[in-house]
Give the backbone structure.
Amino acid sequence: MNTPAPAPEMLADHTGTPRPFLDMPLTYEQARLGMAFHEAGHAVLSMAYGMHVITSEVIAWEPGPGRWAVTGNTVHQAQNTLPWHYAAQCAAGELAHVTYLMTYGLWTPDRAFACTAEHDRELAVDTLAQFGYRLGRWSVPEGGKSWGMVQGMARRKVTHLWREIRTVAHAMNEHTVLTGCEIAALTGLVNPPFEGDAA
């Protein structure tokens, strides 16, 4: 386990606000692997939708003696990505996390709730709004889609790419950080060329 806490920006959402921490009633090993599945969901769908993945990682540290915390981070470049595909990769982390719990016999309502990633939803809402697309949190806005619709798109893709997500998650859990090239080699997906600054 990494013992020092990550830099504050690693624990903040896209607005700079600290992400909320929810208790995940699992062992350290189970929670770490779950977070690896979360980040693998983002990374694999990003790549499948034509985004350049730079790195994807699980981050673990000890906030105090005998205590532990986990989070993750996936860095990608999303130029020329269809807005709804971008939103679906935002939804994929939470869905892959919940699917991990179900697949490994760990699902409970409390654990599923602890997978909630509102920061991913808010990133999708704000990013799409910059390009004139309306993504509703709880309803379908005129001319747009709801977050539930986006989750449906992501769920189909997560199911289709589950083997790749599982492969990446276990490799990430073992190695902590994977590059986009490593993810491409593990999955057979194409990591498109890098075009300038990361997003």
Observations:
- The chain has a mean pLDDT of 91.
